[in-house]
Design goal:
341 residues; mainly alpha; 2 domains; two-stranded antiparallel ribbon; 10 helices
């Protein structure tokens, strides 16, 4: 039986990674992304000030942003949690270096991969602020967070198998990987909607604007190389571009729903997956769609927007759980050959 310390560290790291993604969404939703216009500190300090006179001075010095203590604190709490996660990932890599000689098939390279991802993610966190919330960087930052969560889930799964005495690798079924990929893209589309402030572009539930013809501008809406140097807080796209983003995101929701219903039905009938897991995932997708339309009806209030964001992360977590539940074992595992399913 393998040492269970790495498993404990990976479990805590996974929890913190989810918290970082959730807090990142909350930072974005509350327009706190420029609550601290510098990095890694906040107005040159590691703690956001609450002194009224200092805040007034900072507002005069930074007239292009809204200086507010609560926004600075939201941004800094996000950074604090991310910093703790980074230290934990370093510890996980160090423990992995020690364990790789003691435990056959220990996923040390996977631990190093997570460490590298966290370093890159920290750089994108800095770019998000210093480039003033340019949409492509913000969306890439979200993508990095989701990749870290996914990689930590896989690392934790590998470590759990080692603790249970299972040294063989697993092979995830390709149809499930396609489903996870579709869900991943849909979450990124949601991030693109959010960072371009397109959530309220289409107030009608069945269409975009009931009784009004909308000129969708897909080219501008999906321009992934916007101008650098502008302040993108509040968004800069015209209505047609924002509407195009919103409608593509809505269409994507039904593509994900349709694909997963077919996939889960096939696996349940084939006795590959328990029906409870299928019902759980399908229910989450339906609830997510309901909250998506609730955001439309109520003009994207912070509370509903955050629930929508959190449900997206939970759906990704659930999808990967299904991937591992339906995976097949590989009997030809070789020591030192870390193969990613």
């Amino acid at each position: 039986m393998a040492n269970n310390l790495p498993l404990k560290l990976a479990t805590i790291a996974l929890f913190l990674a989810v918290e970082v993604v959730l807090m990142g969404g909350f930072t974005r939703i509350t327009d706190s992304g420029l609550g601290c216009p510098d990095w890694p500190g906040c107005f040159g300090e590691m703690v956001m000030t609450t002194d009224t006179e200092t805040l007034l001075y900072l507002q005069e010095r930074y007239p292009e942003i809204h200086v507010a203590a609560h926004k600075g604190w939201i941004e800094m709490i996000h950074r604090y949690i991310a910093g703790i996660l980074g230290l934990l990932i370093v510890a996980l890599a160090f423990v992995g270096y020690r364990e790789k000689e003691r435990t056959p098939n220990y996923p040390f390279l996977l631990s190093l991969t997570v460490l590298g991802l966290v370093i890159v993610q920290g750089a994108f966190g800095a770019f998000t602020v210093t480039l003033k919330l340019v949409p492509n960087i913000v969306t890439l930052h979200l993508m990095g967070g989701l990749i870290i969560v996914s990689t930590l889930m896989y690392l934790r799964h590998r470590l759990k198998r080692l603790v249970n005495g299972e040294t063989s690798l697993i092979k995830i079924r390709m149809p499930v990987l396609v489903g996870v990929g579709l869900l991943f893209v849909q979450i990124l589309l949601g991030g693109w909607v959010s960072t371009n402030y397109a959530g309220w572009a289409c107030p009608s539930v069945l269409g975009c604007s009931m009784g009004t013809e909308v000129q969708y501008d897909f080219q501008s809406g999906f321009n992934f190389f916007p101008e650098i140097g502008l302040n993108y807080e509040g968004g800069r796209l015209e209505h047609g571009a924002r509407a195009a983003i919103q409608m593509v995101h809505r269409a994507g929701a039904f593509v994900v729903l349709g694909y997963w219903i077919m996939l889960l039905t096939f696996y349940v009938r084939g006795k590959v997956l328990r029906i409870r897991q299928a019902y759980h995932f399908t229910g989450l997708v339906l609830v997510q769609i309901v909250f998506g339309y609730a955001n439309v009806v109520y003009a994207v209030p912070d509370s509903l927007a955050f629930i929508h964001h959190a449900l997206g992360v939970l759906l990704l977590f659930s999808a990967w759980s299904i991937a591992y539940a339906t995976a097949m074992e590989q009997e030809d595992a070789v020591y030192g050959n870390v193969r990613h399913a």
